[in-house]
Design goal:
Elements: E1 4-6, H1 7-13, E2 18-26, E3 32-41, H2 44-54, E4 59-63
Antiparallel strand pairs: 1-3, 2-3, 2-4
Length: about 80
């Protein structure tokens, strides 16, 4: 994909998927506002593999679904 998508567009097109974004626009809290989707999948490991394979210059990973209960996010 080459078009820049807003976060709302990304979430609506790739519901409950892991999304690899190149050159994301971020807010002051480092939340993704928009960017170019380079890969997406329901399988997180597949997206991580593509991250290593494609090596985008400025990447971000985004999950567009609800995190399961008991899941912790470590930054």
């Amino acid at each position: 994909m080459s078009e820049i998508l807003t976060r709302a567009e990304i979430e609506s097109r790739f519901d409950s998927e892991w999304v690899l974004i190149e050159d994301p626009q971020l807010d002051e809290h480092l939340e993704v506002l928009s960017g170019r989707v380079v890969w997406h999948s329901k399988d997180r490991d597949e997206v991580h593999q593509k991250l290593l394979e494609l090596r985008p210059r400025h990447p971000a990973l985004l999950y567009t679904g609800k995190m399961p209960a008991g899941t912790a996010i470590v930054l």
